[in-house]
Amino acid sequence: MTPIITLTLAIRKKLIKGISSKPAEIMKQVDLEDAVQSAGIIEERSKALVSFDNRYKKLTTLPPLKMKALPVVELFSKMEKLFEEVLRGKGIAFKYQDDCALVIQADPEMLEQVLINKFIQKFTYLCVE
Fold it and tell me: pLDDT tens digits for 26-69?
């Protein structure tokens, strides 16, 4: 839930800042596109959490993996967007090779959840304002 809360707060801050500094019709197209992209990631992560929760309830057996081709750059791009506000607030730069053509076979939802869990484990002292 931390990434969803963080992204939601980031969207709200950007929109409030944009609205307070200028009329909504003059807001930068980039700000609006960023808000839409972030909202899409929130929706995707929420669905993945519901799916993860359903899978977790069936822990007596391992859930079947939903393997598919996953471009690594797509995975890192999502992680960057999920945690950009927290990292920026801590002065941490998230860097990856954005022209990487590597594609892996993985279950995207499960792999994303593992990365989110590791991030949260690493930054357990984070406070969302």
Answer: 666 767 777 778 888 888 888 888 888 878 777 766 678 999 99
The pair of structure tokens assigned to 78 is 């999502």
Tokens 């801590």: give the residue: 90
Round to the nearest angstrom and report the end-to-end CA distance of the chain: 14
Neighbours of 83 (CB within 10 A): 23
> In this structure, are residues 86 and 123 in contact, taking their beta carbons and an 8 Å threshold?
yes
* Residues 73, 13: Cα–Cα separation, whole Å: 27
Domain boundaries, the chain: 2-122
Do the Cβ atoms of 126 and 3 come closer than 8 Å?
Answer: no
Instruction: Confirm whether pTM is higher than 0.70.
Output: no
Give the Cα separation of 31 and 73 in Å (integer).
Answer: 22
The residue among 113, 38, 49, 40 whose CA lies nearest residue 75 is 113
Give the number of residues written for the chain: 129
pLDDT tier at 120, thresholds 50, 70, 90: confident
